[in-house]
Amino acid sequence: MSSIFIGLAANGEKQYLDLSRANRHGLIAGATGTGKTVTLQGLAESFSANGVPVFVADVKGDLSGISMPGSPTFKHADKLEGRAKELGMDDYAYSDNPVVFWDLYGEQGHPIRTTISEMGPLLLSRLLDLNDTQEGVLQIVFRAADEGIMNDGKPVLLLDFEDLQAVLLWAAENASELSGKYGNVTKQSVGAIQRQLLSFEAQGADMFFGEPALEIGDFLKSDEQGRGYVNVLAADKLMRSPKLYATFLLWLLAELFESLPEVGDPDKPKLVFFFDEAHLLFDDAPKALQDKIEQVVRLIRSKGVGVYFCTQNPIDIPEEVAGQLGNKVQHALRAFTPRDQRAIKAAAETFRINPDLDVAEAITELKVGEALVSTLDEDGAPTVVQRTLIKPPRSRLGPVTAKERAIIQSVSPHDGKYDERVDRESAEEVLAAKALDAVETAKEVEEKGEEEVAKRSRKTTSWWEKAGKAGIKAAAGSLVSIGVAAAMGKKSSADPVRTGANAFVRNVLGSLMR
Q1: Secondary structure (DSSP) of 421-484
Q2: Which of 59, 89, 109, 198 could in theory staple to 101 by disulfide, Cβ–Cβ 3.0 to 4.6 A?
Q3: How many CB atoms within 10 Å of residue 192?
Q4: In a domain, 68, yes or no
Q5: Is the peptide bond before 212 cis (omega within 30 degrees of 0)?
Q6: Statement to judge: residues 355 and 321 lie in one domain
Q7: Does 416 fall in a domain?
Q8: Has residue 88 been placed in a domain?
């Protein structure tokens, strides 16, 4: 039986986490400063050493140190080495771990992107904080894009924020047509979605959408020594947008669930996922979203993925989800408020009873680096809870320097794969090209007459008659350059052509499609 050493119980028993039960999920809880991060770091490096890839969100910036070995010169080295000796870890030695750094903003690691289509309307509605009516409108917009009603029946790709903005603009101008086909769509609802998009774009959320999109298999790599890579997401800046943070991690779980095959209960997990500041996933989440979270957590176990929620207060996790968490490490809680007292009682009731231990009392007495531990045994039953001294990590406690991060990044197995954004033809370019064709047609009608223009082949059939009646006068040279630039995907925010193209779509598209 392969297992991970967690620590030494007060009764002298060594506490282990059975790798074949590690995909039954877990909880690491405790008040600030009680040792949750150190516990997480120790577990992550043990999973890695056993060939299990890990994903962890680095909320405070100090988990990056897992990429470097600890050092005897570290100010707390004597405590770490003393704890190792106390636990009988005769083989204790400082060591590093194979790490890949990731960052949604692309500043401290490889950028992580997905497309608007892959995110889908449900999670996007959560991200944008839309009400039920607005979410329904967003679902209609996605459906219209899939069925291609704005592109002669050909589906259009929704890849980035610009694509969604372009399709929403089209939806506002065609609200009546959409309402007749799919259900009520109002310009007011579309406008509310557009305002939320602008707000999140200002926060940098638009950087998360685009290509190349993340290949989920890149989180499942091992190095040449067979150690699983520890994928560290830089989340210190991301935490300023907590809804984006929670939505991203939920999307990642959903992607893992959709992408990975069923494996049942493997000898060890295919991936272990640590979700720090887990309460953000559930704060103000609508019932439909909570149901989806519960479903994903319950079913992803059979895909070989273990999910470990890290939170200050165990009652932050809904009961339906908490019931799926078989492996528990509970650090100290403080009974300062009635809510704290409820949390202590709730935590105590989740453990298998130990007749020799008053769990509720012990939770308030635990020292830093000490926890109540209960894991699943080889039969899948929870072990009796034990008061346990947690093992020290072998890697550095604290962040890496910018220079160390750059060196590690330079030898990443994904170097060059995600760093440059790719912009292929999608909804914005398609709609801009169609609008340009319609304007060119209107200009030709004015110059040559409708009968002569009707003889040439049509680039776009759906707007032909509307374009002929529009009679829009514009300088042909500037129109062509703007439309072609938009169609070719020149989207740099510093490019004046992009600004002109967007204005062109906003101002001309509406008049062509009334």
Answers
A1: -B--S-HHHHHHHHHHHHHHHHHHHHHH-HHHHTTSPPS-STTHHHHHHH-----HHHHHHHHH
A2: 109
A3: 17
A4: yes
A5: yes
A6: yes
A7: no
A8: yes
Print pLDDT tens along the chain (514 aa). 599 999 999 999 999 999 999 999 999 999 988 999 999 999 999 999 999 999 999 988 889 999 999 999 887 899 999 999 999 999 999 999 999 999 999 999 999 999 999 989 988 888 888 999 999 999 999 999 999 988 888 999 999 989 999 999 999 999 988 998 888 899 999 999 999 988 888 777 788 899 999 999 999 999 999 999 999 999 988 888 887 888 888 888 888 988 999 998 899 999 999 988 888 878 777 677 778 788 888 899 999 999 999 998 888 898 888 889 999 999 999 888 888 888 898 889 889 989 999 999 999 999 999 999 999 998 899 999 999 999 999 999 999 999 999 999 999 999 999 999 998 889 999 888 888 877 877 777 777 777 666 666 555 444 333 333 333 333 333 333 334 334 333 343 334 333 333 333 333 333 333 3
Two tokens, residue 444: 């030709």
Same domain, 233 and 319: yes
Domain count within the chain: 3
Nearest CA among 246, 314, 401, 338 for reference residue 34: 314
Among 64, 90, 94, 61, CA closest to 76: 94
Same domain membership, residue 203 and residue 84: no
Phi, psi dihedral angles at 8 (to 5 degrees): -115, 125
Claim to verify: residue 104 and residue 220 sit in the same structural domain: yes
Q: Is 210 helix (H, G, I), strand (E, B) or coil?
A: coil
Q: Do the domain assignments include residue 76?
A: yes
The pTM for the full model equals: 0.82
Q: Give yes or no: residues 340 and 452 share one domain.
A: no
348: Cα within 13 Å, side-chain hemisphere: 17
Q: At which of 191, 208, 225 does a domain end?
A: 208
The parent domain of residue 443 ranges over 427-512
Domain shared by 166 and 239, yes or no: no
Domain boundary, last residue among 168, 193, 208: 208
The letter for the amino acid at 174 is N
d(CA 2, CA 398): 29
**Are 188 and 246 contained in the same domain?**
no
Please state, in angstroms and as integers, the Cα–Cα distance from residue 243 to each residue in 66, 121, 288, following that order. Answer: 27, 15, 16
Beta bridge partners of 57: 233
- Regarding whether 495 and 465 lie in a shared domain, the answer is yes
- Could you tell me the CATH number of the domain that includes residue 333? 3.40.50.300
